[in-house]
Amino acid sequence: MEDGKVIRAFIAVEISAAVRAGLAKMQNVLREAGAHASWVKPENIHCTLVFLGDIFESAAGPLAEALPAAVENIGAFDVEIAGLGFFGTTRSPRIVWAGMAGNTGALGELQQKTCEAAEASGLSPDKKPFKPHLTIARVRSNRNAAELVRAIEKNREITFGTITVQRIVLMQSKLTAAGPEYTAIASIPLGKGD
To answer: I need a labelling partner for 110 at 20 to 30 A (CA). Which of 43, 79, 144, 146 fits?
Structure first.
């Protein structure tokens, strides 16, 4: 590993195949609004706990080593994936998301512990307030934004199922012309003997 090589990284919770399939179907429904949006590939949908941004590749190893101790007192827990919404305004939605409900306190604790581990490893994680969600689209312009917002409102109460959070994943993100490609650097199970 070169000390000087920079990678883009984040810590995430992955979702189940069943929830992923439901989100993919909803993306197809929302696409019909004709909005100018980039739809997240279903296999890339995840919950970002901590966005690290550009870090030296050499920092990934020490962080991966610090994370197990950070999450050892947090056992596996369930989170319901429910609801649709967006960040931005009705005139200019920016991010379309699926919500996370139930046990968001455990999710918040997990986020806090992973953020503390990143800081203790000498990194500077993004400090925006944590709003648990799954990004399913990034809106690129206001074209057909009203139609998209209507479609989101119509499906606001939808539920996609429950995921069991059993591990966190330190991921590398490579930006390509076809969209980001994610590679797991380390997968860290929750709890002591899991």
So the answer is: 43
